Fold these 2 entries.
Entry 1:
Amino acid sequence: FIYHNEDKAQKIWSLMQTYQGIDQKSIQRSIVNHVEYTLAMTRFNFSDFGCYQATAFSLRDRLLESWNDTNQYFTTHNVKRVYYLSLEFLLGRLMQNTLNNINMEKNYREALMDIGYDLERLYDEEVDPALGNGGLGRLAACFLDSLATLEVPAWGYGIRYDYGIFKQVIRDGYQCEIPDFWLSGGNPWEIERPEVIYPIRFYGYTEKYEEDGVERAQWKGGEIVMAKAYDTPVPGYNTFNCNNLRLWKSLPAREFDFQSFNKGDYLSSVESKQRAEYITSVLYPNDNSEEGKELRLKQQYFFCSATVRDVIRRFKKNNSDWKDFPNKAALQLNDTHPAIAAVEFLRILIDEEKLDWGEAWKILHSSFSYTNHTVLPEALETWSVGLINHLLPRHMELIYLINHFFMDEVAKKYPGDYQRMQEMSLIAEGDDKKVRMANLCILCSHKVNGVAELHTKLIQETIFKRFHEYFPNKIENKTNGVTPRRWIHCANPKLSALITEALDDSEWIGELERVEYLENFAEDEEFIQKWIDIKKQNKEKLAAKIEEVVGVKIPINALYDVQIKRIHEYKRQLMNILYVIHRYLTIKDMSPADREKVVPRVVIIGGKAAPGYHNAKAIIKLVNGVGDIVNNDKDIGDTLKVIFYPNYCVSAAQTLIPASELSQHISTAGMEASGTSNMKFVMNGCLIIGTMDGANVEISEEVGEENMFIFGARVEEVNDLRNRLFSGEHKPIDRRLQRVFDSILSGTFGDVSIIYPIIHNLMEGKDYYLVTEDFDSYVKAQNKVDDTYRDQKKWNMMSILGVSRSAKFSSDRTIEEYCESIWKVDRVPIPTPNDTER
Ligand code: KOT
């Protein structure tokens, strides 16, 4: 309505033309204004938390300036946008990252200091928004940072869960889960968009009709839930561009069902409201396993439908020809979790936009693509045909149609090859028919990617073999990466400053290739000493934190050995703790004089177990049991400490990784698709002990195998070894390992009952993850670690070389590859306010 009147529009523009000043007074004024007018606190008496909130609001104001300019620019230039659809975004805290990306940390630190507040203390006031489980969700967050930094027009889409991943507390050695109501103190980073709201239908029935020779349907009845948008600005590093993360919250269509109420059914009128709100209430806490619950499918469809509608609405603002859609939008599916978006898109094109099947299919196929993150069979999503039919009847019809056309094609290409057709079908036949969501994604996408070279080769040769034969150019590799902004510059400011000093400028933060130059310092004594000092300071900070949260004092001069990731049998935290017990028993056997010669170690294990994952929880209990004994054993003293670090999360990682000297990435070969913390550790000068799995393989290519501790069965050997174990042909258990089993089973480390079945299976050769098989080579690698650590010059040289050769693992490189070969999008730098008038 404003735009009818050019004069008034001009007036508004000129009023908005002022930007927040960057001088100290302006910063202080904006913070204090928020204290008074947003938080309604007094200016002179507000807590650290109040100051954190006001500072966050003041930063949000700045972000909104560039956010608005960016979106305005993208709209007027009608640029192609990337949409990253993910059920998880593990953002981590935002304040430090925001300040660094917009290059204002120093200004804010000084402005706050001047009014008596310590910026670092404020950082700790922020809740860690944890709307993800692990690697997959954190990857999405790193991608957002790189997309904005590379000035790619991109939006993330997801769910605004009321409860993120549970908080883990350890009671009596057991994991307990506490709900994470992360919004209780408000969320100063988001903007609620009450005007961006879509109705989402569930259940009901379809009525088919024919129109222009095309079969279409109307989807009727059922129930409607509303999706409301919440936006979080995503600033890039060293650019005025600011992208967006849009998260959906569910609301009842009507606040109150008056019909039921008037009929006297008060309770059921409230119930339907609650059922609506329930959809976005909690993140499913499973990593690498599926949860076949109706509510999970509801979450998926709810968010996909709102997202697809929003994307279409934005397209239609500037475009009238549907054929242009693939030139204006690229939708990336983060695993199969948002797969139903493809079917929803097809449904809208056919039933609402009245396109014919051929046109609609072509548009869908040229704009969608899919990333696979795992080969674990228990994580490959399938949904029962009955459930989809009940919840989304039109979508089930369309899935059958897609399958029908596809099976016809396959039959033509491979006449009589029913085996192949069965494997490629979207439907797994059986008593309870299932839709295979991965097959659906592959079919609907023009590109499918794996997340590391080895993983991509595996999906091409195993789970997606038939599809790879059928579509030989579809499946390609995009090795994961992590953002150096959060994982070096923010997490390890001292290391960042040293790199900047050595390279004589800070451009490396936005172009990690530049750290290659550090190689020249790998043997520079003075530089090495600075390197050592920084690691020591980071270790001191971690030691203080551990004493605070776990109550155990750990020595600073010990080797800090860290394994932090979700607890899963394939990641083999069990092998780690079995080795620790072996180490403990070995030290116990030694004379006091020999103990003096042992390289002291602090072994830190952290990670959450899915609440229903019994074996993972048993492993946590064992680690805590071992810690209790070892840490209190006077014979052992400071030669060995064992810490279970509770509630591992993004902010904990930011303290743990910079302090680590050795990190463990020891999954059974072929099972970890990529891993991304391995990359973060290398960037922080930590050495890796690991198997030839996931991205470890590429890390070893980059940094050199001689600079890592690689061990264990290779992927080609795994199947044979496993078959041999299960056929009873296994070798006798290693005597050291047998001794470890005996000590566990005798109750040395506490209650035996919950770990017993796991140990018993290993002894019987039922060792799917090859722990007993790889143990000997793991011990040898650990011995090599000790020997190398004794030579500090060598160790630190390896550490420096690792950092200098880590450039490949920046998510900037990953995103450039996606842009080039999947999304076909260009950079669109926004003119900064100095360059142009608004
Ligand atoms: C699967 C089902 C539910 C929730 C999460 C998953 C999942 C997570 N599948 N793969 N991942 C991890 O993704 C990371 C990012 O690509 C990889 O680095 C890691 O190896 C996967 O395990």
Entry 2:
Amino acid sequence: GVVVYWSRNKDLRLVDNTALSYASALAQDLGVPLLALHIFSPGDYAAHDRGPRRIDFQLRQLAYLKVEFAKHHIPLFTITQDRKKRKDIPRMLCEKLEEWGAVGLFANVEYEVDELRRDIEILERTKEARQSGKGFGGQVEFFKDFCVVSPGELLTKQGKPYSVYSPWQRNWADHVNSNLQDYVSQQNGPLLANPDSAKSHPILKPMFDHEIPTEIEGFELEGGDEEAKTMRHIWPVGDGITESIMRRFTHNKMREAKFFEPPLEGEDEEEVDDPKKSSKIGKYQEGRNRVDWDGTSHISAYLAAGLISPREPIRIAYKLAGSRELPAGRDSGIGMWIQEIGWRDFYQHVLCAWPRVCMTKPFNLNYDGTIEWATDDDGAKLQAWKDGKTGFPIVDAAMRSLKKQGYMHNRCRMIVASFLSKDLLIDWREGEKYFSQNLVDADLGSNNGGWQWAASTGTDPQPYFRIFNPLSQAEKIDPNGDYVRYWVPELRSLKGKSVHNPAATLSEKKIKELGYVMPIVDHAKARVKAIDSYKEASARG
Ligand code: FAD
């Protein structure tokens, strides 16, 4: 027999991996070899609007893991499921497990509704097999691994799931602090090696030679080799990468952003003497609000695909803070940053408690089909937003950074999302989809949560009339205009913050001569229209 660890889209690592650690220990106990399996499911990628960059990142990491697993005499085998047969994975997998003589299957839970249904079907099939004595009837377990505090663990005093972030955050921080030792001392044991003989095991032997594909059909990088090069440069994988990204954040001095080129080894970076106070994490309260500084961790893609354990940020912050409590609050940079990790958990918990958010429904049912979105003939406005040609420089800069890097600063994500759903009054689901297709850190929970927050259809208790003003926001987060000048070269001749609102000082003719565009909406009028639409929708809902 063999023990099978099923590697998923969100747990691509060897260390502190709950299912892998369990499967590895069990294989040793039973004296049978461990097999690592990864299933590519293009049908699921399409259903989730998963983009080529996110998939390329995953393939690169799997190629790295293949080598690391092999060092432990463990094969990493992959299966590509037919695009039209994504719902057939449970049957296909159970047949394979039987063919391999597997004694058990272990994986980490993916909280999206289709994925949960798939796992339930596997549990049912194995149960039936146990009863009938036909087919794979071994042990099957799914582990909670993707969050610090897993969905379902925290409830309100009334025993209900939290629907509002602030009380969740307080309870989350208390919970983490009360169980701090569990988080700080890694609970998951290390990966244990198979005996040398695994390499000649009849089932495993050919799997060692199996190659990880470099592309998935239908999900090739649009920009070909050039884009592949950029992605490898900005989002590297391999030995020590996540440690190095985190160290830049926890020990290096804040500097002007190079807008992410390159993120690692930054030649002109220096370590500070008192990281708790003056490193990027130490100054996170200010740094996170400036797009022209390199003030955030850039760890999101690595957390989203599980290259780093969700518990690692807790350990890092705890060690750095040097106190018995984990700081989690607005009083310090470290505490503020830890709150963001709480946001990540919050959105996973929302996705689990209200699975309708995975099914293109708003969290707030008042807005279920009630908002009258603007008509956008031929989709020209949506296209202008995607292309970074709206005539609002901060929006355009941000959208261009997304296209080039597969990443966008959090402040900009909020601005462009508010702009699409309020100023253009275009269905937020169009924006969610485009983000998902283009972000390397794309994750349904955080992306959907962020979009519904901006579109006022989500958990945020603030009413719909919070509408970001892209011009005043731009002056706050990019006071000198450097970020905009970098991404919108047409405007490089404009000095200082005048770059944020060219239409205020330049004629339409001059703006066109520069190669730029006039604003596609009047923000003040659009704001009034959006408020009216939302007001009517709320009344209808
Ligand atoms: P840091 O500021 O260093 O934060 C540390 C970590 O905390 C992040 O890596 C991330 O895992 C988590 N985090 C931070 N802010 C949030 C947040 N608001 N919600 C949830 N988690 C958070 N984040 C994603 O990981 N994937 C997405 O698909 C995604 N889509 C978004 C869409 C919109 C419209 C908005 C407004 C936000 C979205 N975010 C998403 C959240 C946030 O913008 C990114 O996590 C952050 O910009 C990543 O940069 P960083 O790693 O430097 O973050």
